[in-house]
Design brief:
The structure is a homotetramer.
Chain A: E1 5-10, H1 24-43, H2 46-51, E2 55-65, E3 74-84, E4 88-97, E5 100-112, H3 124-130
Antiparallel strand pairs in A: 1-3, 2-5, 3-4, 4-5
Helix pairs in contact in A: 1-3
């Protein structure tokens, strides 16, 4: 319970700006990669979710910038699920370099019908698939 | 008092994702363009601020996604200053297509000494320069 | 005959890399923006071409890097059509800062049926639409 | 002799465009990642080259687009050195999905003095470091 899903990436040259550090907008793209990788662990792939008839759209994002990351550094990206509502899922994201925090934040996605884009209830198989990465509700 | 600074951009093809809409991380880059353009209006340019001995780093970002934007659409980007603290500035961002809201959000930047990256007090000329785009403190 | 279509863009902060200059891959995205703007001048919009039943896919690109461009600089993007074959169009791109060349290059696109992605002959209305920006065949 | 340096990447969601395929400009960024990884294999890292007093700037790029790549696909990126001149290096790039070619191309970089950006002769240790990935001159 509560363990985050983790993976590693290496900072690309084109992701760094004139200050020599990762340009802030790329961290939101890194959060998106967390969703892709968590979905792979939970459901096989993002496409596998689509194939079962639901999609997600992002509704809210928050990012806390703690320290810069630089070209060619290896970053650890960690993601866990902090809340599964009726139609929305809240994920917590931590990006660090070794033990040093770089960026923390959260994303809220809404489940939708891919044809109508109308909100739809989170299917039971999604809840089961994400359960291993759910933060303990009694210990948030 | 309180009027936002506004400018227009057109959505580029490469900014749209496989859902045919602007990929979420690009909105954070659009907020960054708001800072560049507000700084131009307030100080002449971002470089003019650097030339006077201070820089800014982003500390926090929040984005509320209201509706998608599509390739080739013209978007209006609006930014105003909601708080000027001792060392940090909070800006409010609204992106809309015509009168339709697309993304709202905020950025918090901290003023730093460009050599040491240590926090530094916001200079008086920065407060004067940003005053025309300050939201009324008594009417936030 | 032979006048290029021109428009201006301003270099964004996030487009510059740790060397403080525009990251090379963005120039290929700038060439793509040239196509979008030339298509707007020639056909109303890229979408208008799709609505008439053809699409284009890029087949080849070449870029010659002459000088760096920096954050906040205004660049002039120029594009003309150097060859219209049976199914492919070759465009010439020049990016400059004032009179100083920054990047030159070319793109070759192939016209396709949007449903099958099979090559398709360039329609006569495309030839007419692009004619004002055709380089003189006798004086390439 | 002549074996390319290879590594793998996975296509990110934000790298795909409204046609559902990797946006063309990202392939030039993938070529740039090839340089980063080849340099790591040859010299320890890009930074290790800078620490020894030389830098490189891109002078020319060519890309041949053979087939589209899609979100979440794994791509193999291969790079080899086809020519080492007095001051410039030509690299050949092949991107494929399994055995299917996606994009081929080349980059030409010039070695420069990082302080003056003037062209500088390729050091002997660079020639030695890149030798394992040199295409056979007698069999180009």
């Amino acid at each position: 319970m509560g363990r985050p899903f983790e993976h590693q990436i290496r900072v690309r040259y084109g992701e760094c700006d004139a200050q020599g550090v990762v340009f802030n907008a790329h961290y939101l793209a890194f959060f998106d990669m967390n969703i892709t990788e968590l979905w792979r662990a939970a459901f096989g792939s993002y496409q596998a979710m689509l194939d079962r008839g639901v999609d997600i759209v992002v509704a809210h994002a928050e990012l806390q910038f703690r320290a810069p990351a630089r070209f060619d550094e290896e970053l650890t990206l960690a993601v866990s699920v902090s809340r599964l509502g009726t139609t929305s899922v809240l994920t917590e994201h931590r990006i660090r370099r070794g033990e040093h925090p770089v960026v923390d934040g959260s994303l809220r996605h809404v489940f939708v019908d891919p044809r109508t884009l109308a909100k739809t209830a989170i299917p039971e198989w999604v809840r089961r698939g994400l359960a291993p990465w759910m933060l303990d509700a009694s210990n948030p």
